[in-house]
Design brief:
Length: 337
Amino acid sequence: MTALKLTNLSKSFGQTEVLRDINLTVEEGEFVVFVGPSGCGKSTLLRVIAGLEDATSGTVEIAGKVVTRVPPAKRGIAMVFQSYALYPHLTVEGNMGLSLKQEGQPKAEISARIAKAAAMLSLDTYLARRPAELSGGQRQRVAIGRAIVREPDLFLFDEPLSNLDAALRMNTRIEIANLHRSLKASMVYVTHDQTEAMTLADKIVVFRDGRVEQIGSPMELYNSPANQFVAGFLGAPSMNFVPANMLGGPKSQIIGIRPEHLRLAETGPLSGTVQHVERLGGDTNLLIQIGQPDLLTVRLFGQHDMAVDTAVHVDFDKSESFVLDAEGQRLENTPPE
Ligand SMILES: Nc1ncnc2c1ncn2[C@@H]1O[C@H](COP(=O)(O)OP(=O)(O)O)[C@@H](O)[C@H]1O
Ligand SMILES: [Mg+2]
């Protein structure tokens, strides 16, 4: 069964169109990440799916039922917000069980579901604490636990890791991936962070300005981006975009080359001077001025001593580059010789 189906979905606030004609599906058990820059409409879309906002037009189908006019509590969804939204006066157990209590579930059932979720999230020993007595990571786990106990048809996550520091973000990312594996649940996860999208998703939906730009698996999008936006958004450091005329091509085209596909060489089609060196330990990123204002990022494996202002030549395999037209649409023809 399809866990979620959006058909011709649009949403406006007054005259402002925030979501434009969105069509997509989430299959049962699938982990789908909605990714795009801040302000592109991700939270609004999640709120429309949850029923917290009405769609202006189009339909929302969850677990095979059209729910466009169904109130949030009856949609079979559970949502996890960036802000946790825990009740400060309730314990961990009280927060996790609240919605089940409101539904009138029997006490024994509530306790059993809380115990199971708490064990999954390593919260067993914190059940009697209040949110103020927990770390940020633990609070976020309580918010996730509160969603798990509801046993929803569909989980909705809105940037759940944004308030955590980098190390905790990575740990929690792995926990969420493990959780998805053990629950086998259908999940929609919203983020502006391309690393989260690449590492968590079965399927990524890239958004820009309220529209779907491209849908595919992480490697499909990375290896076959449909346009300059998707090509530049996924991957860090970002793909380089070189005016094709610098490589003997037509002025109207752009050549996209990923930093890891560039290499320093004795001679090469591109040359310039080292403007900045980023030493990351495992990798070294060279920023090379190849023209005004054109900068090229070359990603080298391992550690390299390279002085600023050194003159270098850069080469790449044409088979690993992308040709884009002036509007940024990917062209299927081979790059210029
Ligand atoms: N209640 C609202 N009224 C008017 N505009 C809104 C409202 N909520 C969101 N927006 C606008 O919709 C756009 C998308 O916002 P949002 O969905 O929060 O983006 P994202 O989550 O991708 O950062 C923004 O331009 C925002 O200002
Ligand atoms: Mg948002």
